[in-house]
Amino acid sequence: MLIDRRQILKAAALAGIGAGSARALAKVPATAPSVEKGAGDNAAGSPLPVRKPGRIHRIVSTSDTVRVGILDPKVAPVATIESGDLVAYPNTWVNWANGATYGMSYAEREPVRKRFPQGPYSNIGPVEVKDAMPGDVIECHMVRLRPIGWGWNSAPKGVGALPNDFDKPYLRYFQFDESRKYTEFAPGIRIRLAPFQGVMAVQPASDEPVSGILSGPYGGNLVLRELVEGTSLFLPVQRPGGMVWTGDSHAAQGDGVVNQTAIETAMEDMQIQYFLHKRNALALPMAETPSHWIALGFGKNLDDALTACLRHMISWLSEASGMDTQDVYSLASIAANFRITQYSNQTASNYSSIPAKTVHGMLPKSVFEPRIRQKISDSLRS
Would you indicate the residue range of the signal peptide (predicted)? Predict the structure, then answer.
């Protein structure tokens, strides 16, 4: 479904876009009016530029638009868009083909979970971006991320950073306030919500389906909690059209996601604007927030993930800024922070794939003067 910008307000209800959100799109300023909120320790910085959408496409979660557990190269695109178009995803599905419901016991959920050995995520897509080719980059700008009213955290036996420390599985449900700002963990413990998508991916180059649990140069199961509203993720295109998938909605998560789940949820209102950047030599996914650039690295262990992340940051920043690689190495040691994005371990899991260890390096924009800062940001969109 395509909606001309002049019809945004009229079509808001049909597109699953709230009136306030639709007005914001219809009157979007040349620069963003506010800075990123909620995720990690991102300090206030210059907001990312807001670019008016070309057309709006609406993709509803159905058995035709969702593939549970996999990124499937054989599936036809559910929408074909142009650079700058916005995709609205109303009422996305929770894990296991929308099979989880609030209050189900762990025993009741197990038959549902075990139907999907390739992975739990209800991945929606793919979205084809016209003219996208290997060697290009697709920017995924997070415009709107409002979760449904509930979520859960769970840990089957034999998973997480401590797979052998607990003798029974764990499951806890959460209800969110109407504003989707907070949830109560327990009496006296309140968690601020910072919704984001755990899976953001272009279709990998392989001609075979790839588990959504995995990650790599194409993106995938990144679980990067900084990707809240107002941020951008840059994904290197692996095959014609890019073929963008998303899934694994989270309401809140800590770095490392140590018991292997966040507050798992779905999105009541999700809007992502996609931009194609031609002939961009980015090797691995990058993210940009108002306050940081973020490099990612993957590996079989944390040592490998850290070195991959650091080499990625050095290569990218040297090219983007013109700095010598050893100077970038020094700057990364002085000013950047390297964090565990995902630490996973599965000794008795239902799933046939094991996520990579992932590390992300956060480079603060504040150390660069505005001229250099602009040059670096422009390099991601050249």
Answer: 1-26
